[in-house]
Write a structure and sequence with these properties.
The chain has 2 domains: 2-169, no CATH class; 180-306, no CATH class. The chain has one helix at 2-13, and strands at residues 41-45, 48-51, 55-61, 64-70, 75-82, 87-91, 98-103, 112-113, 124-133, 138-149, 154-169, 180-185, 188-190, 194-200, 209-215, 222-228, 234-237, 246-250, 259-272, 277-288, 291-306. By secondary structure, the chain is mainly beta.
Length: 307
């Protein structure tokens, strides 16, 4: 449970939140770095060829690599790796490397991932990053893995997967000018230049939620929250291990420094589900999961965002 909560937070903080629980995956998650060229991100899914012929994109920041693709038949694949450069990465329940797959044409579009399942054959596999061109900012590699959906035991198998010369970004695209996010960290006001909010699909053990984050332009620092998509005005308690109201602070690019909200208060001031604007105040005490002596106090937080 702790591993899955931590992975969910890292995916959120790593920008590649699986950012739509609607029928269509939001293309904005691919950022400005989209590449619609057919054939440079592909695999066989249960033996049937799939190609990300609608858009592809990648990020390399916050100590993570993420490659994302969407096809015209509304299938979406995202691979997130702890950045070890050119390397053969293992994807399983015991690592922070993972892949997520959404088939938006299904009546139930909840995602499949490599970090769900109980039995060894349920999910997992490998991603081999074969080259990174740091000058032209492109990445190539191969992959094969199984993804699993805990809720119904469904499974998909990816074989002969490859991504070739995918352009990657090292800074975030600008957020909406109408969104606001501010917070004091250790008593010092921080106003992030980039603010994002989106609905996220279920990433077990999390249910569909609204993800809100403020981030530095280079992605090295971020503060964010997971809150239920049906939240109403009122006061709520942050509790990392409760898995419902989650807060996260990343002070830098070292994943071991990531801190989760162990206590604190979230106050929803308003939530308009028609316009999708949500406003709130927050404060929380954050600790690193593996080192409680590493902690931060976040106070006088405020956000007004459209997701």
């Amino acid at each position: 449970m702790i591993k899955r909560i931590l992975y969910s937070l890292i995916v959120f903080a790593g920008i590649i939140t699986f950012s739509s629980c609607q029928k269509e995956v939001d293309p904005s998650i691919l950022g400005n770095n989209q590449n619609p060229v057919s054939g440079n991100f592909k695999a066989k899914i249960d033996g049937t060829q799939w190609v990300a012929n609608s858009a592809t994109g990648a990020f390399r920041m916050l100590g993570y690599i993420s490659i994302t693709g969407r096809s015209t038949d509304r299938k979406y694949l995202s691979i997130t790796l702890t950045d070890s450069g050119v390397h053969n990465y293992t994807l399983d329940n015991n690592s922070m490397n993972a892949a997520s797959y959404i088939d938006s044409s299904l009546s139930n579009a909840v995602n499949f991932t490599t970090n769900q399942g109980i039995n060894p054959g349920d999910a997992g596999g490998v991603v081999n990053v074969t080259s990174i061109d740091a000058v032209n900012k492109t990445i190539s590699g191969t992959f094969s893995f199984r993804v699993f959906r805990q809720m119904d035991g469904a499974q998909r198998t990816f074989t002969e997967g490859s991504f070739t010369n995918i352009p990657y970004a090292t800074t975030l695209p600008p957020g909406s000018a109408t969104d606001t996010f501010r917070v004091k960290i250790g008593g010092t006001l921080w106003v992030p230049p980039t603010v994002f909010a989106s609905k996220t699909p279920a990433v077990p053990p999390l249910t569909p939620q609204i993800a809100i984050t403020g981030t530095s332009a280079d992605g090295t620092k971020s503060v964010g929250m997971f809150i239920p998509e049906n939240i109403v005005p009122g006061n709520y308690a942050f509790d990392l291990f409760g898995g419902i109201y989650l807060g996260l602070y990343n002070p830098d690019t070292d994943p071991s420094h990531s801190q989760g909200a162990m206590s604190g208060t979230l106050t929803i001031l308003s939530h308009n589900t028609t316009t999708r604007r949500i406003r709130g105040n927050f404060n929380f005490h954050a600790e690193a999961l593996l080192n409680p002596l590493l902690f931060s106090e976040l106070t006088e937080g405020y956000f007004s965002v459209v997701y």
